[in-house]
Amino acid sequence: MNTIIGKKPSILIGGFLVLLITFFWGNIQNIRANTRINRITVEGAHFFSESEVTKILNWENGMEWDSTRGLHQIDTLKNYYHDMGFFNLKIQSQSMPRDSNRIDIELIIQEGERCRIHQIKLSGIEAYHSGKLQKQLVLKPGSYYSSVELTQDMERMVRYFEDRGYPFTTVSLTDFLFHDAISKTEVSILWEIDTVIAVNVTFIEAQGDYRTDSELLPRIMRLNLPFLYSQKRIDKASRLLRRVPFIAYAGKL
Length: 253
Prior knowledge:
By secondary structure, this protein is an alpha/beta fold. Helices cover 27% and strands 25% of the residues. The protein has helices at 50-57, 67-83, 127-136, 147-162, 216-220, 231-242, and strands spanning 11-13, 16-18, 36-43, 90-99, 102-110, 116-123, 170-178, 186-194, 200-201, 227-228. It has a three-stranded mixed beta sheet with strand order 3-5-4, covered by helices on one side. 16% of the residues are buried.
């Protein structure tokens, strides 16, 4: 519970007794129940604006404060920063009472230096594929780290091999190594890729109420059997089949 502390001695001025009261910033964990936020201030935020920070926290003036929920939301804000490569982030939170049931909350943010990619390594595939894949990845040496782009790169690698006859490909992040464990400003990433097995399509079967000759379907879909599996080709074939006027419905292959 935040309390008024540090009372100064009373002073008699012109027959009136004046109490000088000093308010001190306190810990947000100690805010008592049924207290509402009077004002929120954010200092030191640069990557996210002050309005973006309060939106992530889901805090607003006038709302009732919940210490457990508030601390959880600060952890959420930290995760947002970490996802963008701010691994040395520091957040200090404090509160000041305004009256018996209102407080001001201040967040002091030290973002630190944003982490960059030092090196990307691809293991388990031929150098030819590695070179082509490296050009398609968003995260490259020198670029800023982003967990969103990391996930997108993993999906790109899976699609790359799906379109080249390897529909069962798995991609795993096997190493995430900081070059300096303290500064955390550069990281090397190692991907392990397992293409499993190449798949050839030798037969196409249609199910449902249809009268189209089975030999006609591959021609409609522009698929010459046999062919090396390609998810891109399969998706295109599905779209071509759905455009045929005498076919009422064709589900995605």
